[in-house]
């Protein structure tokens, strides 16, 4: 019998196919999803992984057998599934394992209007139902099965995104796009069609075996090709999408990565302008200090949260925020049902660049004011003892504040660092930032010495 504790994560289902889960299990998940969401109809989509069509069809079959109507939108990005959930006002399920290797697959689920389904918002209940049915047998079918409908939402998704960003006056730009053989290769041509852009495609062929590199642009190794190509082509900008194309990374004309915090600040300024210079912007606690500064400078109110999309989305709903950003390159928009869409963030960056005469490196410099360490992982035997050691080392320093919103954050007027424990591995994750490179390096090395002592 399948061990659901290994595949049902905090926010989604994810595991190796067929070792940890298969189509029979996907069918049970479909029935459970229908019951927990109390849906009369749902929408289902999938990415380009070899196992995705079979798993998504099985999930749909499970819901259909419970009398629930199913709209299948087929190949799509995760944010395209969120669009369908929002526009059709239906609970949705996306079959993808994002940037994980080819043998993995998973399900990202949401309620109507793209509201997230996580452990505390239905996922634990779905798991409990599936575990019960694994012991007792599948639930009895409904008296009348649901109706299956196929629907292509790509054009509508693209049109909706384009309605949220004014791209009418941009200058011609040369854009290199690395889709990583993921769903960006499906969505980018339609979303960018008709704009004054020369698009240089890289790895647009949909291939869930990822023959060129992992579809995880957060790892610097996976944007090496893009950085080189931008310089070779004399391009204005490079964009890289992850496997399910819900995250977007940006490279400037010199081939240098643009910090996701700088992208967050840039988009926040634009969204505040769209909303009359007022509004709340959510950012997690490892984004640069620049983000909160820019938000205040443009009339907005910054709100700091823990790391993780459930916290961002929860705070957006609570505060009515217009935008949210994470340093992992997830970008959330009120006008997109508080869901994350890297494609919409990319359109904002293209619009900003296309209406300014300066190169991207000059444009983004104002949003990148500090020296950051990036995230550094350390394997430890006792997470709490290392956090306690850090607290002892820094709590008595002058002009220092400590908080434990997520791990331990230590702040002074000129630098800060955060150390967070991993929930799944014996790791501590360090992020540090300072007014200059020398100070950042000193703080980074001091903290790492304590963590790794």
From TrEMBL:
Its cofactor is Mg(2+). Gene3D superfamilies: Alpha-D-Glucose-1,6-Bisphosphate, subunit A, domain 3, Alpha-D-phosphohexomutase, C-terminal domain. One of its GO terms (molecular function) is intramolecular phosphotransferase activity. It comes from the Bacteria. Pfam families: PGM_PMM_I (PF02878), PGM_PMM_II (PF02879), PGM_PMM_III (PF02880), PGM_PMM_IV (PF00408). Residues 375-448 form the Alpha-D-phosphohexomutase C-terminal domain. InterPro entries: A-D-PHexomutase_a/b/a-I, A-D-PHexomutase_a/b/a-I/II/III, A-D-PHexomutase_a/b/a-II, A-D-PHexomutase_a/b/a-III, A-D-PHexomutase_C, A-D-PHexomutase_C_sf, Alpha-D-phosphohexomutase_SF. Residues 6-132, 156-255, 265-370 form the Alpha-D-phosphohexomutase alpha/beta/alpha domain. CDD domains: PMM_PGM. One of its GO terms (biological process) is carbohydrate metabolic process. Keywords: Isomerase, Magnesium, Metal-binding, Phosphoprotein. Belongs to the phosphohexose mutase family. This is Phosphomannomutase/phosphoglucomutase. The lineage of its organism: Bacteria, Bacillati, Actinomycetota, Actinomycetes, Kitasatosporales.
């Amino acid at each position: 019998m399948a061990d659901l504790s290994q595949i049902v994560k905090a926010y989604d289902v994810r595991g190796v196919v067929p070792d940890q889960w298969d189509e029979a299990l996907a069918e049970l998940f479909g029935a459970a999803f229908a019951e927990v969401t109390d849906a009369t109809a749902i929408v289902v989509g999938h990415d380009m992984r070899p196992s995705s069509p079979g798993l998504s069809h099985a999930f749909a079959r499970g819901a259909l057998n419970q009398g629930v109507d199913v709209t299948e939108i087929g190949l799509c990005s995760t944010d395209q599934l969120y669009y369908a959930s929002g526009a059709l006002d239906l609970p949705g399920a996306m079959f993808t394992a994002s940037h994980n290797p080819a043998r993995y697959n998973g399900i990202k689920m949401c309620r109507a209007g793209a509201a997230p389904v996580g452990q505390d918002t239905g996922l634990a209940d779905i798991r409990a139902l599936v575990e019960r049915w694994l012991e007792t047998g599948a639930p009895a079918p409904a008296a009348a099965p649901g109706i299956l409908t196929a629907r292509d939402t790509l054009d509508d998704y693209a049109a909706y995104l384009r309605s949220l960003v004014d791209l009418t006056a941009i200058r011609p730009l040369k854009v290199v796009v690395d889709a990583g053989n993921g769903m960006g290769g499906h969505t980018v041509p339609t979303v960018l069609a008709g704009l004054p852009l020369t698009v240089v495609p890289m790895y647009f062929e949909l291939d869930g075996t990822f023959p060129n590199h992992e579809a995880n642009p957060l790892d610097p190794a996976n944007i090496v090709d893009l950085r080189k190509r931008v310089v070779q082509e004399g391009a204005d900008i490079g964009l890289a999408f992850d496997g399910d194309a819900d995250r977007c990374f940006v490279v400037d004309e010199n081939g240098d990565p643009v910090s996701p915090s700088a992208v967050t600040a840039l988009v926040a300024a634009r969204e505040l302008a769209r909303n009359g210079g007022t509004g709340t912007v959510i950012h997690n606690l490892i984004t640069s200090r620049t983000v909160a500064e820019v938000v205040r400078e443009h009339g907005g109110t910054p709100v700091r949260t823990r790391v993780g999309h459930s916290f961002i989305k929860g705070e957006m709903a609570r505060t009515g925020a217009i935008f949210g950003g994470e340093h992992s390159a997830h970008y959330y928009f009120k006008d997109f049902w508080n869901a994350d869409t890297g494609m919409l963030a990319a359109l904002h960056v293209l619009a900003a660049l296309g209406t300014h005469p300066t190169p991207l490196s000059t444009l983004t410099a104002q949003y990148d004011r500090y020296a950051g360490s990036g995230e550094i992982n350390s394997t430890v035997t006792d997470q709490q003892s290392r956090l306690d050691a850090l607290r002892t080392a820094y709590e008595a320093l002058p002009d220092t504040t400590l908080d434990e919103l997520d791990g331990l954050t230590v702040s002074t007027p000129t630098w800060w660092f955060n150390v967070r424990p991993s929930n799944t591995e014996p790791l501590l994750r360090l992020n540090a930032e300072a007014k200059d490179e020398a100070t950042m390096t000193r703080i980074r090395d001091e903290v790492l010495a304590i963590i790794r002592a």
